[in-house]
Amino acid sequence: MSSLLEVKNLKTYFKTDRGLVKAVDGVSFYIDEHEIVGLVGESGCGKSVTMLSTIQLIPTPPGIIADGKVLFEGVDLLQYQTKGEEMSIIRGGKIAMIFQEPMTSLNPVLTIGRQITEMLELHLHMNPHPAREKAAELLNLVGIPDAKSHLDDYPHQFSGGMRQRVMIAIAISCDPKIIIADEPTTALDVTTQAQLLELMQELVNRLNTSLVIVTHNLGVVARYAERIYVMYAGRIVESGLSDDIFLNPLHPYTIGLLKCVPQLGETKNDRELVPISGLPPNLISMPQTCAFLPRCSYHVEKCQSKVWPELRAVGNQHFVSCYIDTRENQ
Amino acid sequence: MTAYIIRRLMLGVIILLLVTLLVFLAMRLLPGDPLIIFISQSQTEVYSPAQLAELRQEYGLDRTLPVQYISWLGNMLRGDMGKSINLGQDVGYLISKKLPVTIYFGVMSFIVSAFFGIIFGVICALRRGKWIDSVVTVLANIGITLPAFWVGILLMYLFSLTLHWLPTGGYVAPTESLGQSLRSAIMPVICLSLFSVAALTRQTRSAMLEVVSQDYIRTAWSKGLRERVIILRHTIKNAMIPVITILGLQVGLIFGGSVLIETVFNIPGMGRLLADSLFSHDYQIVQAGTLVIAMVVVLSNLAVDISYGWFDPRIRYG
Amino acid sequence: MQNNVANTVEPAALSEIAPAQSEFRRVMRVFFGRKLAVVGLVLIVFLIITAIFAPWLAPYPPNDIDMTQTLAKPSAEHWLGTDNLGRDVLSRIIYGARTSMIIAVGATAMSVILGEALGLIAAYFGGIVFQIIMRLIDALMAVPMLLIALIMASLLGGGVKNVILALGVGMLSVHARMMCAQALSVKQNDYILAARAMGMGNLRMMFLEIVPNAFPALVVVATVGLGAVILTEAGLSFLGVGVMPPYPAWGGMISDGYKYILSNPALSLSPGVAIMLVVFGFNMMGDGLRDALDPRLRGVI
Description:
The complex is a heterotrimer of chains A (about 325), B (about 325) and C (about 300).
Chain A: E1 5-16, E2 19-31, E3 36-40, H1 47-54, E4 63-72, E5 75-76, H2 85-93, E6 95-98, H3 112-123, H4 128-141, H5 147-150, H6 160-172, E7 178-182, H7 190-207, E8 210-215, H8 218-224, E9 227-232, E10 235-241, H9 242-247, H10 252-259, H11 301-305, E11 312-315, E12 318-320
Parallel strand pairs in A: 3-8, 3-9, 6-7, 7-8
Antiparallel strand pairs in A: 1-2, 1-4, 4-5, 9-10, 10-12, 11-12
Chain B: H1 2-28, H2 41-46, H3 49-58, H4 65-78, H5 91-126, H6 131-143, H7 148-162, H8 178-212, H9 215-222, H10 227-264, H11 270-279, H12 283-311, H13 313-316
Helix pairs in contact in B: 1-12, 5-6, 5-8, 5-10, 6-8, 7-8, 7-10, 8-10, 9-10, 10-11, 10-12, 11-12
Chain C: H1 5-8, H2 11-15, H3 23-33, H4 35-52, H5 54-57, H6 89-125, H7 127-142, H8 145-156, H9 160-187, H10 190-197, H11 202-239, H12 250-258, H13 265-293
């Protein structure tokens, strides 16, 4: 059975003054129907760029999708023109996106209602009046009380959490198959974060869409994602079922990430929080060898002489890009 | 929104009052006998001291400064702007003849500047980096360096004196003959709008590029909206916000420019009147003329401010 | 088995740290990276050299009258021809550079000092002081700059000093407004509250905190303002207010030449070109400085 979305060997580069930045360098993953997938990694690892590339939202003067296929329902989206009719139908209608910054992601001079109805008019060909009705319904659905009266309000009259709810309403408005949430709660306070994540999970279940959560926050994906991909320096270094990744991490980076996250119930005597040593890599002058090598405490001879390892299977749906078996080195 | 308008109106009134104060004080800055605000220099030399003293009393110069100001202001508000020292005519009458001419050219220039400036700016931003952007940007950069009156002379040399295509200036009322009126207005309007078109092109281009790089435009793309919709509905309206500010500034610049252009093209407008009056020391006209111009500028700034509120809802619903 | 952390940090990792670059060098790099800005700088340097070395560069003394050679067209002897009194046009343009520079620098300096001071005071003290100063500035801005300068220059009489004064007052408002806006945005920052809590005095606060932050905007506006002053001064001398003849001023030359345009067009046209080049130079420098010092000002200035 083929997946809803299948990305094969995606490569997205950016031409800068200082050189070619290989933000995404050979990433492959899939998303099935009705599932929640997490894409995890630190800032700059390429996770956002990966998802933006799938719907061609990368600014193409500095950026360029150098290679790869993005198969949505079997059809390669990358063959379509960025500004063309086909992509226009896909974006918002089949694959919708929620962005990180609610404060700046909504147009300040258009009403909330307009920003929702324009979606409905475009993708569902609704007329203005029924579109307004539907927009009010959507606002109710995302937990904005007294929706009808808010339709003519402007974004600046709302708080960050409310604006993010509006963004969610916009995303679900046309029943997309996949919703991509790019750091959806990073800019919000903890309580609002929790509320919005619950909301998203509820909506995803109710509407039977798939959700991709892109985040650096392990706590977020632990609770909600069924499968997880871990990215580092533009590639996927580990992937698997959520439980496997958390209970049985195999890539040194994943292990490192989990080591520096405190767990509820632990005291400082139980375990030391160990940060990952070293600095994030410079994506311009990447060596051929494993990108994590400078910061890896498990490395052996082999790692310094061979190229970046391919993902190999180590269990049920569990893949790791590493030359050694870290379980042996505990 | 109404509260906003009322506030701006009241502010406008305060500003105008301050302008009257500044003008009043400026006149008193004149070296020499303040009597020359009211009568000509030559007359002060002719009259006897007794006659001068009488005149001073007549013009209220023996009263304290604040009192003089109040009474002068009172006169102005009643429409009594004094008498021209040299021409003998009522200043109010003179202004009523000349102001419409300047406004005629001014409005045309304003519309031309706004229209071309904004359109060129949008085109440049949308075709960023392409040759049309480079060419128009260079032209705009040159445009803001051109001394308008010099361009006037250049155009006159070319199109009137050499090619004989256009008249050398002057003013023909549109009611008399629209064709003639527009023909003689072409060169002056070009000169008056040159700087503004260039400045607006630069500002619009810059604002458009700024807006296009904003997050909400990326959101618009992610919604599947087509490029035309994104430009017209999402981008331009936002870009106009800073552009309106610059547009407002052009009113003052166009009025300032009209002093020079009316001189070059021999147009009987407010600008020429003021320039001539300054030289002939006809201070009654200078006072009133400056005030009238300031009033027009303040009113148009008010209009700009109000439209600002229409473009930017954050101002309306603060 | 965990390796010692120190051993695993390879030298390669250190080279990934971005090299510390001094702010000054960064500014220079961006500025000189923009071709137009460099062109502008070259033009202005050229202007300054012309102004300073006028006596050596000009082929003839600018005020030498020669009634046998009036209104001559450009020739090998007189590259731009002569005016109605037989004076060499090129020399007058070269000396005109002096007039322009002196007035431009003088007026800009005055408007910067007065304007920035007013803006700073208004923003700093706030309340009624702010209102009064800002309304006065608004009133000043309600009268077109040329008109202000014209009125002041006429009332005070011509001459370089008065023209500088007149233009300085005309340009004041821009600087006052800008400094006020900058100061207000700095004032809101928490570190101002912290400084106050530590007992920092008013004057010190103004100079140590607010002025340095406003510096980029100030430099850019002043540079572009130089161009604006030159254009306005040209207008003034065109109308006959301004430097007293026989000292050459570009605007005055245009006005003189106006009447004789058919005899020697260079007389009226060449000073305009000179003005354009100079204003262009200042504008391009201003753009370059803005991009180098603070690109965030892009939409604003």
